[in-house]
C-alpha cells in the first residue's frame, strides 16, 4: 500500500523505525540443570521430585514419565492429598474457570485449571547432589558450547487437585500428588513423527519445548544417583554419559488405560536370566530366556521393577536363588541393560525404610510388558529426545554391544545374541 519512501516516513512519524514497535521475540535458552530428591520412609515416596515456584508459591512435584500434564495439589484438597510439599491457593485470581476429571485405573482426580508464571528452583542446599559410582563427579552436560540457562519464568497452564478418590482402597484414599508429566498425549500414529504438537497447549513438554517454549533443544535428561538419595534433571540438554539412543514405541501398544497418554515405552529384543559361572566368577551364563516380555516401560512415577502376573509367579523370587546374577535386556541399536539381582530383592522392610521397592507383581500388566521404576534406574541416565521420539541410555549397568557395563560388575554373558 505504501511505497518504500512513504513507509520510511510513516515509521519516522511514529518516532522511529516500525520494527522497533514490534514486541520483542524471546530468544530460546540453553539447558537448565535442576536437582531432584525423594523422601525416605514416607508412603509411596520412592519417587523423585523437583521444586517449582508457581505464582510465588513453592511446590514440590513428582517427575512422571508416564503422564502428560502439570497437576498441582490445590488448597481445597484435604486429607486425600497427604504427604505433599506446598499447594496452590484456592483464592488465586489465575483460575481459568475450567474444570475436569482424570481417571487412572481405580483413582479419580477432580481438577480446576489455572494459568500462572512458573520458575524452577535450581539450588536445594538441604539436598546436595552426590557423586556417580563413588567418583564424586556427576555426569557432565553434553555439548557444553550451549550456555546454561538462567532460571526462566514462563507461563504455565496446569490443573489443581480439589478432590481425589480411590475406588479400590478400602478405609482410606490413595493420596493425590503434585506431578509434572514428562510425556505428551500421543495420537494414534504413535511417536514415530515426533512428540511435539503445536496444537497442544496443555502438556508440560509442549508448553516448554514447543514453538512458544523456553528451550532451544527439545530434549531432557534424568540421572539418578547410585545410592538413590538424589538425582538431577536437565531441561533442554542431555547428560554426557548417554551412549546410544533407542526409538520409542507408540502408546497404543501399551496398556489400554495408557494408550492415550504419553509413556517411555521401548522394545525388548531379548530378556535373559543370567547366573554366575561356578568355575569363573567373572563369567556369567544364560539360565533362562523370558520370551514373553517384549516391551519395557520406564516409569519415573513408579518405584518397583514390576512384572506381569504370568512372569512374576514363575520368577518372583529371583533375588533369593543362589547363583542368580541378575537380568539382561537387549534393546534396539544393540543397547544392553544389566539389572543385578540384589536390586530386586523384594524386601518389604527395605521398601518401607527407603521408599524403594524390589521386584513386584502387577496384575494389570499385559503379559509382554515389564516396568522399570526408580529402583532399577539408580545409577542410570535416561534422556528423551522429543523431536526424534527416542530414549538415550548411559550410566551404570548400561552398555552398547559387547562393552562391559560401567560400575555394574556384570560382564557380557556368553551366548547372548545381538
UniProtKB/TrEMBL annotation:
<protein>
    <recommendedName>
        <fullName>Peptidase A1 domain-containing protein</fullName>
    </recommendedName>
</protein>
<dbReference type="InterPro" id="IPR021109">
    <property type="entry name" value="Peptidase_aspartic_dom_sf"/>
</dbReference>
Amino acid at each position: 500500500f505504501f511505497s518504500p519512501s512513504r513507509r520510511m516516513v510513516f515509521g519516522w512519524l511514529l518516532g522511529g523505525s516500525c520494527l522497533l514497535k514490534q514486541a520483542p521475540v524471546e530468544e530460546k535458552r540453553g539447558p537448565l540443570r535442576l536437582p531432584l530428591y525423594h523422601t525416605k520412609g514416607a508412603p509411596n515416596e520412592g519417587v523423585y521430585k523437583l521444586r517449582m515456584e508457581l505464582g510465588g508459591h513453592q511446590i514440590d512435584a513428582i517427575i512422571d514419565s508416564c503422564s502428560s500434564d502439570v497437576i498441582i495439589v490445590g488448597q481445597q484438597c484435604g486429607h486425600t492429598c497427604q504427604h505433599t510439599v506446598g499447594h496452590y491457593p484456592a483464592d488465586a485470581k489465575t483460575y481459568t474457570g475450567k474444570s475436569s476429571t482424570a481417571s487412572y485405573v481405580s483413582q479419580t482426580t477432580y481438577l480446576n485449571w489455572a494459568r500462572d508464571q512458573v520458575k524452577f528452583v535450581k539450588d536445594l542446599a538441604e539436598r546436595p547432589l552426590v557423586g556417580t559410582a563413588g567418583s564424586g563427579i556427576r555426569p557432565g552436560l553434553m555439548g557444553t558450547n550451549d550456555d546454561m540457562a538462567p532460571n526462566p519464568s514462563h507461563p504455565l497452564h496446569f490443573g489443581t487437585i480439589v478432590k481425589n478418590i480411590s475406588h479400590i482402597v478400602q478405609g482410606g484414599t490413595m493420596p493425590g500428588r503434585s506431578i509434572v508429566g514428562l510425556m505428551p498425549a500421543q495420537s494414534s500414529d504413535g511417536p514415530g513423527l515426533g512428540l511435539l504438537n503445536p496444537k497442544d497447549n496443555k502438556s508440560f513438554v509442549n508448553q516448554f519445548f514447543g514453538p512458544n517454549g523456553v528451550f532451544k533443544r527439545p530434549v531432557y535428561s534424568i540421572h539418578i544417583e547410585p545410592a538413590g538419595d538424589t538425582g538431577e534433571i536437565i531441561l533442554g540438554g542431555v547428560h554426557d554419559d548417554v551412549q546410544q539412543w533407542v526409538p520409542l514405541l507408540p502408546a497404543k501398544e501399551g496398556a489400554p488405560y495408557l494408550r492415550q497418554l504419553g509413556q517411555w515405552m521401548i522394545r525388548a529384543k531379548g530378556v535373559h536370566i543370567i547366573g554366575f559361572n561356578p568355575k569363573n566368577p567373572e563369567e556369567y551364563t544364560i539360565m533362562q530366556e523370558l520370551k514373553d516380555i517384549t516391551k519395557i516401560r520406564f516409569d519415573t512415577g513408579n518405584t518397583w521393577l514390576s512384572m506381569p502376573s504370568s512372569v512374576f509367579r514363575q520368577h518372583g523370587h529371583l533375588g533369593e536363588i543362589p547363583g542368580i546374577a541378575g537380568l539382561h535386556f537387549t534393546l534396539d541399536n544393540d543397547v544392553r541393560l544389566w539389572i543385578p539381582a540384589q536390586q530386586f530383592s523384594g524386601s518389604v522392610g527395605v521398601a518401607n525404610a527407603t521408599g524403594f521397592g524390589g521386584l513386584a507383581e502387577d496384575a494389570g500388566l499385559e503379559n509382554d510388558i515389564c516396568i522399570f521404576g526408580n529402583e532399577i534406574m539408580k545409577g542410570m541416565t535416561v534422556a528423551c529426545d522429543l523431536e526424534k521420539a527416542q530414549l538415550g541410555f548411559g550410566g551404570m549397568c548400561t552398555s552398547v554391544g559387547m562393552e562391559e557395563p560401567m560400575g555394574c560388575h556384570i560382564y557380557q554373558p556368553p551366548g547372548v545374541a545381538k
